[in-house]
Amino acid sequence: MKKKTMAAILGVTILASMSTGAYAATKLQEIKAYLNPGVKVKVNGTLVQLKDAKGSAIVPIEYKNSNYVPARAIADALGVAVDYDQATQTIIFGEKVEGTALSVGFDDMYYTKDPAFTSYKGKDYKEAYFNNGTGDRSVNFMLHPNKQYQTLQLQIAAIGSDLKNITVKDTKKDIILKEVELIKAEDGLTTIEVNVGGVEELFVEGSISSGGTVFVPLTTSHYK
Question: Could you say which residues form the signal peptide (predicted)?
């Protein structure tokens, strides 16, 4: 289950905090609402106390039979990063990247949200491609930019064994767009940049020896 907002879990509506400058730039309407301390919040079956940025306890606001809570309180309760872009008045949950994360619509048998597999060198990326299959093998997955982007920033790490002969292929035109001979386990997270302008479908492939794992953080790998 994706942790997009508390609306997906509790059916409540997000209320973002904005600065005085942001208020001046919007067409706000005054409303009459009520603090409702009777509303409790559970995350994965455990009761939690929502808190503001200063650590003070907060309660939901009730307005027209809907409960409103600050976005930051929800993000903290779920363990998800949150930011607010004042210029575009956009609430950003999860990793902040300058494009569209590969996690959007990614589909593969090695896709995971299990924290045991989404963390790399102490950082939890929340969603990842984690290929820990057995034996000497090919590792591969599909991507679908659908001609919407110019660049792919693909992050890959090899764990336990080196990743070899990495190719990124335009499957519709049968053209190899990028080749990387080797990503060593000691290299850490490596970024591969690929020009994907006009490309509909990509096939990413490499090979790894027995005992090796391929890790791709899907929240920070992205299209631009």
Answer: 1-24
